[in-house]
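Q: What would this chain look like folded?
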Amino acid sequence: LFIRILKIVICNLTKNLLEIAEESFSELVTRYRTPKRHHHTLEGHVYACIRELDDIFETSRNLFAQAALWVHDVCYDPQAHDNEAQSVRWMRNLFGNMRISQGFIDKTALIVETTSHIAPPYIMLFGTHGEKRAYDDLLDINADIACDADLSILGKPEKEFNTYEARIRKEYAFVLESLFREKR
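A: My prediction, written as structure tokens:
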């Protein structure tokens, strides 16, 4: 009887997790398809990041980077200054509901934060002299690779880069051309 009850509980847990995963992926797709997005889309930017990641990093060791790249721009508003922080909050809720380990969530969150590119990943993660946290080789590598994949468009052929730049300009249509050129 105990085994049958346990099987029913496990089956229901698995079903609930699958439902949560399906709903969450649907929300992720919806967020990446908002009308204001021209570059920061699932089919464009995120898939390109994942392809880059697959080209440069062994799949079995890049789970943190993969997870971070899927969610790093899930919350995106060109007028906001905290997109990565919002994406981290969304990701923490999603992964928590899916009962993903807190350690995985925390490391993925750190990598998402590095995609703001306000400083080199190493500095953002560990500080200039390691004052933020103990060095973690796997975290460091995953953050570097995720950031490289996120910015890989900068090393693409001119035609591809120009398409990217035109899409970014559409996302920032609210900014005067002169200011956009100065800041870019």
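The mean pLDDT is 89.
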